[in-house]
Amino acid sequence: MSQPSWHPESLAARLPFLRRRTELQAATRAFFLARGYTEVETPYAVPAPGEEVHLSAFATERIAPDGRREKLWLNTSPEFAMKKLVVAGAGPIFQFARVWRNGEGSPTHAPEFTMLEWYRPGASMDALIAETSELLAAVLPPVAECRGVRTDLAHPERLTMAEAFDRWVGADLLATAGDARALAAAARTDFRPAETWEDLFFRLILERIDPHLGHERATFLTHWPAAQAALARRDPADPRVAERFELYACGIELANAFVELTDAAEQRARFEEDRARRAALYGDVGWPLDESFLAALDYGMPPTAGIALGFDRLAMLAGGARSITDVLWLP
After folding, report:
1. pLDDT higher than threshold 90 for residue 291
2. Fewer beta carbons under 10 A from the terminal one: N or C of the chain?
3. Pairing verdict, β 93-100 and 38-39
4. How far is CA 312 from CA 109, 188, 242, 261, in A?
5. Percentage of the residues of the chain whose pLDDT score is greater than 70
6. Class of residue 275 by CB neighbours under 10 A (exposed 0-12, middle 13-18, buried 19+)
C-alpha cells in the first residue's frame, strides 16, 4: 500500500524532484526579470474561467458582507486577466499561476497545477518561438530525458500542422478543412458518422502525429487551422491558418502559444460559436461571456504574443520525473 503524500517516506522520494523544481522556478523568474518582464498576480476565482470547448471548470461562490451571493469559477487559465493588464499598459508580463481543470488526471495531468504564462507586446510568432527556445536553454540541460524519451532541446525543429498531416497522415489538411468525409478518405481511415471534422482532426493528431513530436528533438508545431485557435489571429499570409504553436519535448506537450487576436468583434463571434458547440456537447456551462475582457479588447490591445507553459511538466523534464505527482509538494 502506498504511503500518503504527507508521510516522510513519500516526501523523501519526491524531494530530489522538488528541490530541482525550486531551482527551476528561481532560474525561470531570473530569466524573465533580466529581460524586462514584470511578474504579476491575477485572481483565481473569476466570473468566467475560459471559453475552451472541452475544458471543465471548478465552481465556487463568493458571499458578500450583506449576504449577496455571486457564483464564481476557479480559472482554467489566467489569460483573460493578463491580457487586460496588457491593455492597461503593464506588459511585458509573466506569472506562475495556479489553474484548475476538472476531470483531468494522468501521469502528465493534474486537476490543479501551475501554469507559467507570459505576454510580450509587439512580439511576432518567430520572436516568441526564439524566446521560448532561449528559456529552455537557460533553465534546462541541452538534452533532457523524461519518461524514457531522450530529447535534444538545443536544436528544436519547426513544423507546420499542414506539414505534419502531409508527413504522417498523408492528407492535405487545409484542402479538406471542414469536410470530415474528405479528410477521412485522404487519411485512409474509417469515416465515423457521428464524428465531426474537428473530432477527426484531433483523432488523427492523437493516433498518427503526437507519437512523433518532441522525441529526438523538441518540436514547435505551428500554423494551426484557424478554427482550432479561437484566441489567435489569422496569419496575414494565409487566413486559413492561425498564428498558433505548441511545443513538445520528451513526447510531452509543454506549451500552447498565440499571436493574440485583438479584434473584439471577431473574438466575440468566436466565443459565441465555441459556446454553442460546448452547449451542444455538454449543456450550459453556467457562466456568462467575460464582457470585461471583450471591453478591454475593444478599448485597444496592442499587437501581442503570449504563451502558456505547463510548469509542472517543465519540472518533470528538469528532474527526469516519470509522473507529475513527483514534482508536486502535496499531490
Report:
1. yes
2. N
3. parallel
4. 9, 37, 27, 27
5. 100
6. middle
Tell me the average pLDDT across 60-76: 96
* Cα(139)–Cα(75) distance, integer angstroms: 27
* Structure-block grid coordinates of residue 125: 510568432
Which 3 state secondary structure label does DSSP give 49?
coil
Select the more confidently predicted residue: 169 or 1: 169
Check pLDDT > 90 for residue 9. Answer: yes
Cβ proximity of 110 and 81 under 8 Å: no
- Rounded-to-integer distance, Cα 225 and Cα 141, Å: 33
User: What's the pLDDT score for residue 1?
Assistant: 56
- Look up residue 33 and give its three cell numbers: 526579470
User: What DSSP line would sit under 237-293, residue for residue?
Assistant: TEEEEEEEEEEEETTEEEEEEEEBP--HHHHHHHHHHHHHHHHHHH---S----HHH
**Structural domains for the chain:** 8-327 (3.30.930.10)
**C-alpha angle 254-258-259 in degrees, rounded to nearest 5:** 150
If you average pLDDT over every residue of the chain, what do you get?
Answer: 95
Residue 287: how many CA atoms within 13 Å on its side-chain side? 24
What is the spatial distance between Cα 108 and Cα 165, in angstroms, rounded to a whole number?
A: 25
Q: Are strands 217-225 and 149-160 parallel, antiparallel or unpaired?
A: parallel
What is the SS3 assignment for 157-223?
Answer: EEEEHHHHHHHHHCCCCHHHCCCHHHHHHHHCCCCCCCCCHHHHHHHHHHHHHHHHCCCCEEEEEEE
Cβ-contact 310, 328 below 8 angstroms: no
Sequence-separated (6 or more) residues with CB below 8 Å from residue 325: 5, 14, 110, 331
Q: Looking at the whole model, is its pTM more than 0.70?
A: yes
